[in-house]
Amino acid sequence: MIEVMEDVPARTVTLPDGRRLAYYEFGDPAGVPCLYTPGWPASGLLGGVYDDAAREAGVRWISIDKPGAGASDFDPRRSLLRYADDIAHLADELGLDRFASVGESGGGPHAAVLAHALPDRLTTTILLAAMGPAHEKWVREGMQPVNRRLIMMAQRAPWLLRAQTLLLSRMMNNPTKARRWERSLVEQASEADRRALARIDTGWLTAAAAAALRDGGRAAAQELAMIARPWGFALADITSPVEVWHGTADTNVPVAIARRVVAEIRTCTAVTYVEGEGHIVGLLVRHDVMASVVRASGGGRRGDMRPPSDRSRPTGHPRS
């Protein structure tokens, strides 16, 4: 089981407009650099669930606190394109000329904009159970009713969404209620996701959600509204290499969304649909993801070394 690491320090850089952007370092400090954007609502602490796989593969796993989450300052002018500017500045500060990018769930749109805006700096972009452009009707079709309601709320009644995230923030800041939330998360998960959650200390999820909601849920509401409106670029405009990993039993972001995203992005180099797995597919394929990061850097196949019992069951195909 992947257990919560104590006292993971947040590091920060100062952006040109004076805001702080925070990040966490996991894996191999001297390894192949990869920037990870977690889902919604989660801070960069969630990157800790990938620490073991990154360290084993030789990957420097740099996990981002999105604007307003964790130790990152709120951005009143937030957009996906501004996020790309923030990450370009972070990479400059860290001395990274080239790096990989991974976006999971609601972090998927953030990784997609990096693929669009920073094509010359990315070795590869990996989308894990990634959300599609929610302003498109085809993204909302087949989603769970609760997720459809959240998206519609973000589009039509952001004030109501803000009230919802405020309530969630208050819950996560109450230790007793936060533990209750953690238990209900597991109990209400699909069978596939319960299998995945059994591999980690779910305290990672609670800590990451609490940090993302530290400001009373203002940034979380802003983020969902941002994802639910036009992104400022089209998936078809992406010109850099992209890989897609998605579980066929994902009920949060149905696999039909991934298939459409693959059809829209003309530079998908690999597509893997993991049979029978759910929204937390990234945890199950984490060693394969690290292997892809290493290969894209030209570093060989070091990341392929892992115990046979931990191998996923992918069914996919390369795409040229």
UniProtKB/TrEMBL annotation:
Query: What InterPro entries does this protein's entry cite?
Result: AB_hydrolase_1, AB_hydrolase_fold
Q: What is this protein called?
A: Pimeloyl-ACP methyl ester carboxylesterase
Supply the source organism for this entry. Saccharothrix saharensis
Domain AB hydrolase-1 residue range list? 39-137
Region (Disordered) location? 296-320
| GO MF term list | catalytic activity
Recorded hits in Gene3D superfamilies, A to Z, give: alpha/beta hydrolase (3.40.50.1820)
Q: Basic and acidic residues composition bias: which ranges?
A: 301-313
